[in-house]
Structures are given as C-alpha cells and as structure tokens.
Write a structure and sequence with these properties.
CATH superfamily: Isoleucyl-tRNA Synthetase, Domain 1
Radius of gyration: 15 Å
Number of strands: 0
C-alpha cells in the first residue's frame, strides 16, 4: 500500500476532492470497503473474549482482500497520458484507508508496519 501511495504522489494524484464510493464498481472494492469498517468490532470482540488472534486474523483477511482488489484493479493510478480523474482519487483514498487500518491493527499487536520491504 505504501508503494501505491508513493506512486500516486509522484503522478500528482491527490485526495483533494473527497471519497466517492459510487465510483467503486468492482465486487472486490465492496468487499474491501466492508472489511475496512470492521476493525472496531473485531478489536472490541478480541478484547472482550481475550482472543488477540482475532485481530491478526482480521488483518490477514484485510490484506488478502486488498491484494485481490489490487490484482483485479491493477490500474489504480493513471496509465501513460491518462489524466487524473475522480476514480483515481477515490482509489487512492481506498489504498490510504487500507494502509492506515493495517498499521493501526498491527500497532495494537505490537508489530511495526514498515513503509518498504
């Protein structure tokens, strides 16, 4: 996710106009959006039940959903001379949200989230 964010910055894709979920039309995007909204519930459940592995499993599922989405929508950013449009901006929001949720969840588990591998 950090690599996509770096590439977006290099191409001048900014999140300036907000997030428009109506531009996300692929089933993998719906799955990813749904999972992003689950972090608070998963953390609460893990704390209540004293089962921290639930957070780890959720993060694994989220990372898998991101990779499925990225594989299906490889062209998150503009290609060639294609102008930047609202769909690109919305997808950058989705990438950033995924990166933040993964970092937050890993932080709860005491694991760092490196920017580069």
């Amino acid at each position: 996710t950090a690599g996509v964010a770096r590439n977006a910055a290099e191409l001048g894709v900014r999140r300036e106009d907000g997030f428009d979920p109506s531009l996300l039309d692929h089933e993998t995007e719906a799955v990813l959006l749904g999972l992003l909204g689950e972090l608070a519930r998963v953390v609460e459940q893990a704390a209540t039940l004293r089962e921290p592995h639930r957070v780890a499993r959720y993060l694994e599922d989220l990372a898998g959903a991101f990779h499925k989405w990225y594989d299906a929508k490889r062209y998150v950013l503009p290609q060639g001379d294609e102008p930047v449009n609202d769909t690109h901006r919305t997808r950058v929001w989705l990438v950033d949200a995924t990166r933040q949720v993964l970092a937050n969840g890993l932080g709860l588990l005491g694991v760092s989230a490196p920017e580069r591998m």
